[in-house]
Amino acid sequence: MTRAGGAFAREVARALAAPADGPLAARFPGALVTALAADAAGEGLERLETALAAVSRTLAGLGVPVGRQFVLLAAGSAWPAGARERLRAALGVPAIAHDPRGPCFVPGHTDAGERVEVSDELREAEALVVVGPATGGADGLRGGPFILCPGLASAATAAAWTAAARGRGAAGAFAFAAAAERLLPVQLALLWDVEGRVVAGDGRERFAALAAAAGAGSGPSG
């Protein structure tokens, strides 16, 4: 049964109260500048707004005030008109749409030497949260690590990710995104499937679990 409205909000609250990989306090030890990377994946904004609001409140309770939080909307998603403005008004934090052709910075390279360029908005971020739909199963891997890369990548890095996906399929796509996450660790991933089942936990662990379910593995990047 698909969860919507209040049922989905309760599922989000349950996941945040008992993250899969242990308490959140150790991952957010102070008032860190925290980026909330978000993707609606064509679902509309209801679930995403609910999830982001819950994450923002949870972070505030951990000592990360709203003044130290901002939302970064992944590129390549079918965002509804006015999404940025709606989220900014609902959450009370800046909401910025990532432009793959805008300013970027280079946190490093994959093991294969591919340059990884991501939104310049992440340059000053001290913590990173990924929020959005994600699936891993017979239909393949969607969302999750791909919200970070290619979602927040430069046009050039997105093209390199696409080349990896074409060359090695789902395993190549995941390996490239996983390499980006090693350069920009995700302290918290809050993800849900099409039925609204929610999981929260360490980004690397949650992404690897999705990849394993999709048969994408977690081999070396490139």
Assess the beta-strand content as a share of residues.
15-25%
Report, as a whole number of angstroms, the end-to-end distance: 39 Å
The CATH class turns out to be Alpha Beta
Using only CA atoms, what is the Rg?
A: 16 Å
Helix run count? 6
The secondary-structure element order is HEHEHEEEEEHHEEH
The CATH topology is Rossmann fold
Global geometry: globular
Largest sheet: 7 strands, mixed
Which architecture would the CATH scheme give at its second level? 3-Layer(aba) Sandwich
Describe the structure.
This protein is of the alpha/beta class and 222 residues long. It has one domain (6-213): 3-Layer(aba) Sandwich (Rossmann fold). The protein contains six helices and nine strands. Strands 1, 2, 3, 6, 7, 8 and 9 form a seven-stranded mixed β-sheet that branches. A two-stranded antiparallel ribbon has the order 4-5. Helix 5 packs across helix 6 (203-213). The longest helix is centred in the last third of the chain and has 29 residues, at 155-183. The termini are far apart.
